[in-house]
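From the pipeline queue, job 12 of 40. The input is one protein chain; the requested action is below.

Action: predict structure.
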Amino acid sequence: MTDKIFSPETYSMIGQWAIGFCKDLVVAVIVFIIGNWLIKWMKKLIKKMMQRSKIEPSLTTFLTSIINVVLWLTLIIIVISILGIETSSFIALFASAGMAIGMALSGTLQNFAGGVMIMLFKPFKVGDFIEAQGYAGTVKEIQIFNTIIRTNDAQTIIIPNGGLSTGSMKNYSTEPYRRVDVEFQFAYGTDLEQVKQAISEIQLRSDKILKEPVADSPVAAPWIGLTKLGDSGVVVNTRSWCKSADYWPVYFYMNETVYQELKERGFMFPYNKLDVNIIK
């Protein structure tokens, strides 16, 4: 029986298998060495491309790590297939593991994808004043999963990037100019032309309010007009354009100055009142 097992044909088959396996092993080693070099080269190239695109450093590091893992898994599968080992089971295992991890971390992955979109397309940047998800404040930090903003009353708000990247958002810092709309109500019978002249003088006196239109922008000269007839008086709307950084100073300037000066000139600011008629 021993002679049958170790027959010349058996030795020949073992020798052929060994020679073939050695060839495959040499090819696999060469492919592994070349693949290792290519992975390092591709990592450096991708990192340089991200740096040139001015992508956030935290995102660059994270994406580079993910790409590195994917490339190494691909290289390992190629090497295994060269050695003649069935790779379908490995691929199925990786796919199942990826699906399980994806389902477990669906919310986290959504926030990560949102962070990638924000850092790539830059709808806002650190220092911008935005309004989103029911909060308004200055962006202090853009992280991979969350964005941190600080409100005007010094509260720190952490907003997940998933909803931030897909929901509506106002960015007050993208445009160089903003329009300040302020409404005032005056008693019926007030001389409208005198009111407009007095408010116009206040607008022209401010060095923060733009006096002339700006080319290629919606900026216009200061405007004053009667917008509606209210319950207790006429409503006058004022529109003043200024630099974005001067919005709040101009807003408070218009409210305070118009109230003080027009009150001194005898203009009446009505208040809500109710007439009650008693029928006997």
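Job complete. The first strand starts at residue 129 and ends at 132.
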